[in-house]
Amino acid sequence: MDRIRIVGGNRLNGTIPISGAKNAALPLMIASLLTRDTLTLDNVPRLADVALLKRILGNHGVDCMVQGKRAGQNGLSGETLELRAGDIVDTVAPYDLVSKMRASFWVIGPLVARMGEARVSLPGGCAIGTRPVDLFIDALRTLGAEIDIDAGYVIARAKNGLRGARIAFPKVTVGATHVAMMAAALAKGETVIENAAREPEVVDLAACLVKMGARIAGAGTSTIHIDGVETLSGARHPVMPDRIETGTYAFAAAMTGGDVLLEGASASILERPLEVLRQIGAEVTETNHGIRVYRNGGGLAPVEVTTEPFPGFPTDLQAQLMALVTRAGGTSKIRETIFENRFMHVQELARLGAEIHLDGQMATVKGVERLKGAPVMATDLRASVSLVIAGLGAEGETIVNRVYHLDRGFERIEDKLGACGATIERLSG
Ligand code: EPZ
C-alpha cells in the first residue's frame, strides 16, 4: 500500500492549481442517469472516487468516455467526461460497489424517477459516524415512491412515476437535497424542498440540471422550487472548483509560511474558512487568478470555530484547521456538529506532539511550539490530509500510511505541494 513521506519545515511558495470539486463531480455524474442524451462534464478531477463512480454508472448502462486532451491542457487540468445513459440496463446498485462510497447511494433518485424502480445497497464510505439514509427514504416516499428495505438493499418503486410534493427536511442534508432535486426534476408537478442544503455543490448540480431542461429555482437558498418535466436532455457543464481542496492548501500555506497562489479558486464559496484563516494570522487576498495566501514570520493565533452547514465553517475542513492550530500560540476550541465521530485525526496528531483534549463534540487544542515527525495513518479522507498539513509543519520525517484515502479526494497532492517546495514523495508498495 502506498505511503506519503514528508520532511517538514519548508515554506510553500508558488502556484497550486485547484481541481474540480469531488463533491460536485459525483452528483453531476449521477445526473447523467436522468437522460438518454449525452451529458458532457468538463474539469472532472482524476480521483479514485470518480473512477469508482464510472464503474457504478457503467453497471447501470452508462457509456462513459474520456475526451482526449486538448491543445494547451496540462496534466493537472481535469478530464472531460461524456456520459450517455441511452438505455438503463440494470436498476440494481450492488453492495460490493456502493459499500465503498456513500455518494453512490444517490443513484437511487434518478433511477426511480426515470425507470420507476431502483434497488440500491445501503451505503458505506468514510468512517465518520453512522450516516443513516432515513432522510433520503422520507424524501422519496414524499414524492410517492414505495420503499422497502430488504437484505441490505433499499428498494424504491414508483410504477406510475413520482409526483411533486413538499419535502421539509428536519435537518440540513447535502446528499438528500441532491437526490430530492434530481428525482423531483422528472416528477409530475411541483416540488418544494424546505430546509434544503445551500452548499455550492447543490447550486452547481441545479445549474447543470437547468441546462438539461429542468425547471429549478432557489438553489443556494433554503427553499428550492422544482417544476417537474417529462424528459431531460443532454448538456455540457464544467465542474466547479473544489472549495475543500482550496481550503486545505490555504491552511497548508499558513502552516508553513510562504506565499501561495491557489489558481482557479473562488473566494466567494469559502468566506468563513478564509475569515478564520485571517484570524489565525495569514494574509488572504483574491486576485484575478485565484486566492493568494501569504504568511511571513508572524505566529499563529488560536481560534474558536464550530462546523456548520454552508455558509458556516465546513466539517470537511475541520481536521485541516485542527492540524494548523496545533501550532498556534494559545488554546483553540473546535466544535464538530455535523458528524458525531469525525475526530480520528486527534490521536494521530498527538503522535506528532499535538496537545488535544476531546470532550464529546468539542476539541480543545493547546498550541505547542513544535511538532515532530512520526509515522501516522488515518481512516478518512480529510483526516488523512490533516496529517499531511501537520507533517509539513513538523520537524523531521512524517510517513502518512493508508494513502488510498487521500487518492479518493486529492488529485496529485504530492506533485502540487512538491512544486511549491515541500519535501514530499509517494513511496510505493
Ligand atoms: C456530503 O455528505 C459530503 N459528501 C461530505 O463530504 C460532507 O462532509 C457532508 O456533505 C457535509 O457537508 C459528498 O458530497 C460526496 P449530509 P453527505 O447528508 O451528503 C445526517 C468528504 O470528505 N443525515 O449533508 O453524506 C448525517 O448523518 C465527505 O468529502 C441523516 O441523519 O452529508 C449528518 O449528520 C465526507 N440522515 C448530516 O445529516 C440522512 O438520511 C449531514 O449529512 C442523511 C444525512
List unreliable stretches of 5+ residues: none
Major sheet: 4 strands, mixed
First CA to last CA: what distance?
Answer: 5 Å
> Quick one: how many beta strands?
26
Bound molecules: ligand EPZ
Helicity, as a percent range: 25-40%
**Strand portion, in percent?**
25-35%
SS field, number of helical segments: 14
Strand order of the largest sheet: 23-25-1-26
Rg to the nearest angstrom?
21 Å
Helical/strand content category: alpha/beta
Average pLDDT works out at 94
What general form does the structure show?
globular
Please tell me about this protein's structure.
By secondary structure, the chain is an alpha/beta fold. The chain has helices at residues 22-31, 48-60, 95-98, 108-115, 134-142, 174-185, 200-211, 243-256, 271-280, 318-325, 345-351, 381-392, 404-409, 413-418, and strands at 3-7, 12-17, 38-44, 63-66, 79-84, 92-93, 117-121, 146-150, 153-157, 166-168, 190-194, 215-217, 223-227, 235-238, 258-263, 283-286, 290-295, 304-306, 331-335, 355-359, 362-366, 371-372, 375-377, 394-395, 397-401, 423-427. The protein has a four-stranded mixed sheet with strand order 23-25-1-26. A four-stranded mixed sheet has the order 2-15-17-16, with helices on one face. It has a four-stranded mixed sheet with strand order 4-5-3-14. The N and C termini lie close together (5 Å). Residues 23, 26, 102-103, 126, 129, 131-136, 171, 173-176, 314-316, 338-339, 381-382, 409 line the site of ligand EPZ. Ligand EPZ binds at residues 23, 26, 102-103, 126, 129, 131-136, 171, 173-176, 314-316, 338-339, 381-382, 409.
